[in-house]
Amino acid sequence: MLISFDWLKQLIHIDKSAEETGALLTGAGLEVEGIHTFDVVQGGLEGIVIGEVLTCERHPDADRLNITTVDIGAAEPSQIVCGAPNVAAGQKVVVATVNSTLYPAGGEPFKIKKSKIRGAVSEGMICAEDEIGIGASHAGIMVLDTDLPNGTPAAEFFGLGSDKVFEIGLTPNRADAASHFGVARDLQALLHEQAQLPKVGDFKVNNTSRPIAVEVQDAEACPRYAGVTVSGIKVGPSPEWMQKRLRAIGLSPINNVVDVTNYVLHELGQPLHAFDADKITGGKIVVKTVEAGTTFKTLDGVERKLHATDLMICNAEGPMAIGGVFGGEESGVTDETSSIFIESAYFSPGWVRRTGMAHNLKTDASFRFERGTDPNMVILALKRAALLVQEVAGGEVSSELVDVYPEAIKDAEVLLSIERTHLLIGQHIGAERIKAILTDLGIQVTNETETHLTLSVPPYKVDVTREADVVEEILRIYGFNNIQMDENLATTFLAKFPNPYAEDVTEAIMSYIAANGFHEIITNSITNSNYYQPAGEAEVASLVKVVNFNSEDLDVMRKSMVFSGLEVLRRNINRRQRDLKLFELGKVYEQQDGEYKESRKLSLYMVGNVTAESWKQPSIKSAFHDLAGVVQNVLRKLNAGDFEVQNLENNGYMRQGIAYVKNATVVAELGVLDAGVTRFMEVKEQVWYAELNWDYLLKKYKDKLVAEELPKFPEVRRDLSLVVDKNVTFDQLKKVAFKVERKLLQGVNVFDVYEGDKIEAGKKAYALSFTLQDRQQTLTDKVIDSTMNRLMQQFEKQLGAFIRK
C-alpha cells in the first residue's frame, strides 16, 4: 500500500520528517518497507534553476547560435550557447546547470556538461518546455514572467515539488489503516494530534430532478447502500493537484469523475462507484443476486458467467456492476456522460471475498470490502465525492441522498481488565495512559471501575473483538521499544494449576517425540478429494468441500492425516531418503447432515530401518513395537488413565493393528497402513502409522505426580510359560493377572512369544514374568506359591491356557 506524505499532512499536523514518521508507523505495526521520492516531472527538475539573460550576441562562427551570459545566482554569470530564435537579453529563463540531467518529453534523458560549441564555451542550457518534460512545445525557450531571484529552483516556480511516498506492508488484520485517513488515525495516537476528516458541511441538494430509487433485496450481503445523483457535469481531465496525488500512489488518472472515486477511496478507505445515470433504466437501483450462468461484461471488457452467490447492482433490465468488486462496461462513465449516480455502500466481507475468488478479480475496492470497511464512513465519503465532482466537473446535486440501512451495525463491546493489560504488556503503564491511548484510537470507554474498563470498539476496527486484541492496540501505540528489560533476565514463578495451558502440554509431548528421533512436519489442511474416492461414496459425502478452490488438487479439507503424511513420505523416498520417522499435530474435518466437525489429531509415521547399518550390527527394520512404545509413553506422560486395548476394526486405512479405547472412545490407533492405500499414494514401502485423538487426550490430561516412599522389602520375580489360542493377546493376560491379585502384583512383562511347529496349530506360547512385592513385610515362599497358583488357575479357566512345566 502506498501512502503520500504530503497527502497525510493535509489530514494531520506532522512536524517530523518522512523518515521519522516512517519509523513511528513501523513501530506501531504499519511496517514501512520503503520510502521513495515521487516527482511530478521525472527527475524533479533537480539542478534546473531560474536565470536572467544579461547579454545576447550572435555566435561569430554560426548564424543560428547566440552566445549569452546568464545570471543563475552564482558568483559569476555563466556563458551559455543557445540556438533558440527567441532568446534575448533581459529575459527570465529556465537554465539547466552543468551536471544536471534533463528528461525531455518522449526522449532519452541526458546529462548537461560543460562543453565547446563551435569554439565557444557553454556552461549549461537554456531550456524549452519539452526539454524539461513539462510540456510538448519546442517553438523556443521558455520566457518567464516572475520576480523570483535568480538561482531559484525551477520546481518552486512551477509548483512541482516532490513528495515522499511510504510503501507500507499492510497486514490482513489492519483493514482500518487501508487509507490515508486510516494511517492518520494511528498518527493521531502516536503524535497526540487530531486527525481531521475532510469537511462536507457545504453539501446540499440543489434540486430533485433526477431521483434514483434504491431497493436492497439481500440485506445480509449488503447491510448499507447509499447514493446520490449529480447532474450537469462535464467529463474531462482532473485538475493537476488531483492527478499529482493519484500518480504519487501509483494510480493513472482516467477522468475527473473516476479520479474522484479513486481519490476518496484512498483518502477515506471507502470504495465508491459512479454509474452513468442515463443508463440506469427504470430510474431504480436493485441490489440482488441473479440467476447462475447469467453473462455480464465487466469494465475490463471480459464477459463473465455469474454465480448464484454473486451480489449484483442492477437496474430495471439487468446487472450493472458486481457489488463491491467491479463495474460493468455498459454503465460506466464515458466522455458523453452528463449525469452520474454515485454509489457508497457497505458490503459483507464474506460475499465480496467469495465473488472475487470465483472470478479471480482483485481490485482496490474488493481489497478493502473483503477485509471489512467502516459502515459509518458511507455517508461522509458520499458527500465528499459529490462535492469533489462539483469542484472538478461542475454540475449540481439533483436528488435526495438515499441511505438504505435497515439495521445499524453496532460497536463491539469489550471488557478490559487493567491488571491483565499490565500483565500482558509486561509493564505497568497506568490506567490513565491506557485510557488516553484508547481514546486517541477512537475506542470509547463507556464504563469504568477500579479494575475494569468497558469499551465500545467502532466497526472499522474489524480485528479488535477481544480483550487481547485491545491490549495489542495499546501496546503497539505505547511502543514495544518502551517495554523495559532488566539487565539480568529472569522469569517469574508461575504456579501449576490443575488444568495447565494446553500449549505447554503439547510442547512437552512434541519435544518428547522429537527426542525419540521423529521429525515434525507441517502439511496443508486442504487436500485432494480423489484420495478418498476408493473408500466409497459415504466417505466422499462426509468430506468438507472448499467452495472457492483455486486448484483441482486442493478442493476439500482433509478428513484424515494419512494422505498428507504419505505425500511427504513419497517425496522423501523418491529422493532416496528411505529411513523416516515423522510426526504431525494437525486438524481434520468432516461433515454429517450439514453439521461440521473439526478436531486435532497427532499422527506418527515410520518407514524403513529403525537403526542404521554399522560395523557393529546390521540395520534393523522398523516394526510395530517400535511405534507402539512411543505411543504408550505419550499416553503415559499424559496421565490420562488406563486404556483398553482392542484389535483394530472399521479402519479403512490400516490393514492390522490395535486401538486404545477408553469409555467407548477410541483414543489412539496404530498399525500398518493398508498396502492398497500406500500403493495408491505411490509409496512402495511398508508404513507404520499411529493416530491419537489429541483433543480427547488434552481434556483427560491430569497434571498429578504421586510420590511414594521407597519400599523397604525386596521384590520377587517368578516366570511362567503358557500356551493359549492364537487370538489371545498379552493385554488380556495382563488384565486377568491384575484382577486376580491387586495387592502384591507390581508388574507383568512378556519376554518371549513362540509360534511354530513345536506347539499345536492355532496356538502360541507366551513366556511371562511377574513381579511381586509386599510393602509391609518380606514375602514368603508360601505366599508366592499361593499367588502364582491362583494366577495359573484363572489363566486356565478364563483364557483356556495350558501351563507349560
Model description:
One of its GO terms (biological process) is phenylalanyl-tRNA aminoacylation. InterPro entries: aa-tRNA-synth_II/BPL/LPL, B3/B4_tRNA-bd, DNA-bd_dom_put_sf, Fdx_antiC-bd, Fdx_antiC-bd_sf, NA-bd_OB-fold, Phe-tRNA-ligase_IIc_bsu, Phe-tRNA-ligase_IIc_bsu_bact. It catalyses: tRNA(Phe) + L-phenylalanine + ATP = L-phenylalanyl-tRNA(Phe) + AMP + diphosphate + H(+). There is one protein chain. It is built from 20 helices and 44 strands. With 805 residues, the chain is an alpha+beta fold. The protein has six domains: 68 residues, Phenylalanyl-tRNA Synthetase, Chain B, domain 1 (2-Layer Sandwich); 117 residues, Nucleic acid-binding proteins (OB fold (Dihydrolipoamide Acetyltransferase, E2P), Beta Barrel), CATH 2.40.50; 192 residues, Phenylalanyl-trna Synthetase, Chain B, domain 3 (Phenylalanyl-tRNA Synthetase, Chain B, domain 3, 3-Layer(bba) Sandwich), CATH 3.50.40; 71 residues, Phenylalanyl-tRNA Synthetase, Chain B, domain 1 (2-Layer Sandwich); 199 residues, Bira Bifunctional Protein, Domain 2 (BirA Bifunctional Protein, domain 2); 89 residues, 2-Layer Sandwich (Alpha-Beta Plaits), CATH 3.30.70. A seven-stranded mixed β-sheet has the order 29-33-34-40-39-38-37. Strands 3, 4, 5, 6, 11 and 12 form a six-stranded antiparallel β-sheet that branches. Strand 33 and strand 34 form a beta hairpin. Helix 4 packs antiparallel against helix 11 and helix 5 crosses helix 6. It is elongated, with a radius of gyration of 40 Å. The N and C termini lie far apart (84 Å). The relative contact order is 0.06.
